Each structure stands twice: as C-alpha cells, then as structure tokens.
C-alpha cells in the first residue's frame, strides 16, 4: 500500500477510507458513517466485511443498504482460526489497496485485526466508539483487552461520550486526537424508525424484554437469572416476558429447561435488527447483559436492568436510564418488582435523558475525518 510517500494532510482529490466490519453490531454502528461519507464530495468509503458472524450479517448489510466491496472467507470455527485467517487475508488485501485510513468500530476480533493491519502498513487507524473501559481484562472477555489494544495503535479516537474521552485522556491519549461524537447506534435507530416504521404498537404496559449471552454469565449465573425470570413471571402473570434465546447451547438448554413451561414467557429465536427495535419500542422493561441494548433502550425511553456487575457504559447508570443487578436471583427479582410496583421510580427512569446522543454522530465523524485528511479545505 503506497501511503507513506505522501504526508498526511497534503493529499487532494477523493480520499479512500477502508471500513472494516465483521459482526452485526459493527454493521449497525458503521452504517451511518458509511452513508455520511458516501454523501460527501471528498470521500469514498470502501467496505470490507470479515465474515466473523457468518451468514447472520448478510441480512444486516441488506437492511442498511450496504454492498461490501470486499468479503473475506471465514476460516475455521474457533476464534483463533478466524483471527489467523482474517489476518492473512487482510494482509493480502491491504498490500494491494490504497487508502488513507482504516476505520474500525468497537472491540471485536475483526476490529482488532483491521486495526493491526492498518498499523503494520503505517496507515492511520480511526477507532469508532473509542474509550469504553471496565479495566477488568476478563469482564468482558476478550472485548476489554481488544479495545485497549486498539486504543494503543489508533491515530484518531472517536469517543461516544465525554466519559469515554476522559478515560482516553487518563491513559495518555492527546486531547487533539480525540473527538466526542455521540454514539452512531442512535443514528441507526432513528434511521430504522423513519424508514421501517418502528413505533410502539401495543397498549400499556407492554412486555418485559430479556436477553442474555455474555460469557461471564455462563454456568451457574444462567441458572440464577432464569430462576429470577421464572419468579417474576409467576408474580406478574398478566405481563408477558419476551425472551429471544441465544443459539449457544450453554444458554439455550437452561433457558428452555427452566422457562419453557411458563405460559406468560415467550421464548423465541434470536431477533433480527428491525424486529429487536420493534421489541424495544413495545417493551415496558429490558433485562439484559447486552452492551448494545444498554445503548439502544434509552432511545425508546425503556428502563433497563443490566445483568452484570460492572459496565463499560457508566453513562447509562449516571443518566438514570439503567441499574446494575448482576446475576443474583434475589437482586433481580427485587429490582423488577420495585419498578413494576413503584410508578414514581418507573417514570423517573423513563424520563432520563439519552446519554448516547441525538442521532447526529455520523455527521460529526464525517466532519472530523475531513478535518484530519483534508485540513487545507477547512475555512480559516
């Protein structure tokens, strides 16, 4: 890749920007940036999809009207096999593709391999959703380690919140290399609402939406959480619990064994993106260990209980949108009961401001990239 001979900021013409995705969340959060860059006159985004989530990502790409320029071939079934295959194919592609930056999002193996490829070819790495931290390398695993390593080699850090920016500054990243943009997940949600008619379709109170998949909740925690959901379903028989069940047998088996016989618990296959947005819009409460749902629930003003002991998204707690309940059966039941029986507490969480932005994050990112790559085009 011939980018070393031309100093950054002195290029002219249309800039080529390589965007790397591999999972559904990456597609959701990069799609608004991709379309913002396509609408600009100065940039040409090149989309590379690694195939980390296999066939599950195809529907997401179609949903957001994205046709990848490059599709890597998934090698093996383990994360190690994927990492090796992805790294090898990225190396070949980067050696024959001229681009001015590599853009990655979040904390997946695809993001890490994309960032590493850019770094080895001395192409600046831009990290979307930078600065999320728990400082516990095992929670979440391996995401915490991956995003910290991406942070060490990125040239531009696009932080979704002021708190994420502060974490980066604390780690020694220069303020000039950080931009607070908001979270593009909100941009994607508002786009889905506008283009696919996502809005509340049920009368009050709506259902309780439950999801669970994180590695740190495997084992006895899955059993504890399912027992808590069963307690709640029995205590509130007029409420429906909607539980899209992860396909991993570690989750699927205990969920069906412990909850399958309850008449007001609806177990379903995993939902696609638009169906999940509709499920959020129709929910009265979300109980989840998902990082993505922590970001998405506030858009629909749905109170959120997080099945984790810590979160890299403390803003959702500080804003009052969510509470940590961990995997303790008694704690989960008490918190759900409190929200369902104390109207003031419930309304207070509903009224909390969205800490993740106003749906214009992609525009801010496009402008910051223009400033980085075409500073001569900026007004004095």
Question: Can you lay out the helices and strands and say which pair or pack?
Answer:
Layout: E1 15-21, H1 24-39, E2 43-49, H2 56-63, E3 70-71, H3 79-95, E4 101-105, H4 109-120, E5 125-128, H5 143-153, E6 156-159, H6 162-170, E7 178-180, H7 184-196, E8 207-211, H8 220-235, E9 241-244, H9 249-259, E10 265-268, H10 273-281, E11 283-288, H11 291-296, E12 304-306, H12 314-318, E13 322-324, H13 329-341, H14 343-350, H15 361-373
Folded structure, characterized:
With 380 residues, this protein is an alpha/beta fold. It folds into two domains: 15-182 and 359-377, 3-Layer(aba) Sandwich (Rossmann fold), CATH 3.40.50.2000; 198-350, Rossmann fold. The protein has 15 helices and 13 strands. The strands form two sheets. A seven-stranded parallel sheet has the order 3-2-1-4-5-6-7, with helices on both faces. It is globular, with a radius of gyration of 21 Å. Mean pLDDT is 93; it is low at 1-10.
Stretches with pLDDT under 50, minimum 5 residues: 1-10
Measure the end-to-end span: 32 Å
Oligomer description: single chain
Using the 3D structure, state the CATH architecture of the largest domain. Answer: 3-Layer(aba) Sandwich
Structural class by sheet pairing and helices: alpha/beta
Please give the largest β-sheet. 7 strands, parallel
Number of strands: 13
The helix count comes to 15
**Please, what is the CATH homologous superfamily of the largest domain?**
Glycogen Phosphorylase B
Beta fraction of the residues? 15-25%
Kindly provide the name of the CATH class of the largest domain: Alpha Beta
- SSE ordering: EHEHEHEHEHEHEHEHEHEHEHEHEHHH
Catalytic activity: UDP-N-acetyl-alpha-D-glucosamine = UDP-N-acetyl-alpha-D-mannosamine
Protein name: UDP-N-acetylglucosamine 2-epimerase (non-hydrolyzing)
Enzyme class: isomerase
Pfam family, one: Epimerase_2
